[in-house]
Amino acid sequence: MDTMRDRFISTTSQLLDEDARLAVVLADISADGFRPAQQAHPDRVINVGIREQLLIGVGGGLALTGVRPVVHTFASFLVERPFEQVKLDFGHQGTGAVLVSAGGSYDWPAGGFTHMAPGDVALLDTLDGWTIHVPGHPDEAEALLREAVRGEDRVYLRLSLQQNDRALPVTGEGFLTLREGRSGVVIAVGPMLGAVEEAVEGLDVTLLYATTVRPFDSAALRRATEHASTDVVIVEPYLAGTSTTAANDALRDVPHRILGLGVGRAELRRYGQMAEHLTAHRLDPASLRQDITGFLGGRWTGSDESPSSGHRGRFRAVKP
Questions:
Q1: Sheet with 68-74, side-by-side order of all strands
Q2: Residue 132 pairs with which residues in a beta bridge?
Q3: What's domain 4-158's superfamily in CATH?
Q4: Which of 33, 143, 207, 221 could form a disulfide with 9 if both were Cys (CB 3.0 to 4.6 A apart)?
Q5: Contacts of 195 (CB under 8 A, 6+ apart)
């Protein structure tokens, strides 16, 4: 199976042949993969080098001319380092673009903390008008990319080496209901689906699958809680609790509890491998099952020493 990043490169190269409005802006990352496309379209595949602020500035300038820019590098260099440019060159200017990241939260642990971006979605959440896609499979990444380039809006497509074994039909709108139950609602975001499915096997829960997390599908969550418990667990492949505010807002008029599971705030300073980071943040199936069953059973007691404890066990039960 190819990776999401491989699929992004091949799909975007094809789209450059089909759509003269499209341009790709790079900052060295994936430049080799786009070399054939750059040779075919030298005026629409632009590599600015390791200059991330310029990367966003060029994308914003192209957007002002009517071009649909696809801007790409690692998440930490695409969202975090040039955040002021993202805020001003797209949001303030009222222009659109498709930002496509690689690297996820810790795809390349040997690169150290400079190449990790577990806070990217939370950071973009401070800005208005961004659609955020978090695919869990290369086929989903391709479908969401093709949908994004057709529009005029601001889109962030978050790619990762972590991926599910199968693709599901995604359209860029709303959550998918994979199963229904009465003991609670579990939302699995993008590449977390495989681990979550294993974690909730045999449990009487509703399972929702989210690949488009902004706008947050409040209607799907409300439907899921109409005839079941309003205990909600959100499992995200980035900063724990990123979507708890959105879920709280969706259920603001009904008693509910929410547990946000994801990447913790503590920096893990040993390189390790991606699987070891998942385990350290309690995002492996066994840890997820323990935390989900404990929360839904009312016995979960978060520990401040847990890597992801910043948003665990902190939501007071308001159900009668």
A1: 45-47, 22-26, 68-74, 97-102, 154-158, 130-133, 212-214
A2: 156, 214
A3: Thiamin diphosphate (ThDP)-binding fold, Pyr/PP domains (3.40.50.970)
A4: 33
A5: 235, 278, 283, 284, 285, 288
User: Which tokens in the block code for residue 23?
Assistant: 């341009």
Rounded to two decimals, the pTM is 0.92
CATH number of 176-311: 3.40.50.920
Q: Where are the domains of the chain?
A: 4-158, 176-311
- Residue 214, classed as helix, strand or coil, is strand
């350290």: which residue's tokens?
280
The beta strands (E) that lie in 159-286 are given as: 176-179, 185-189, 206-210, 212-214, 231-239, 257-263
pLDDT tens sequence for the chain (320 residues): 899 999 999 999 999 999 999 999 999 999 999 999 999 999 999 999 999 999 999 999 999 999 999 999 999 999 999 999 999 999 999 999 999 999 999 999 999 999 999 999 999 999 999 999 999 999 999 999 999 999 999 999 999 999 999 999 999 999 999 999 999 999 999 999 999 999 999 999 999 999 999 999 999 999 999 987 999 999 999 999 999 999 999 999 999 999 999 999 999 998 999 999 999 999 999 999 999 999 998 544 343 333 343 344 333 333 32
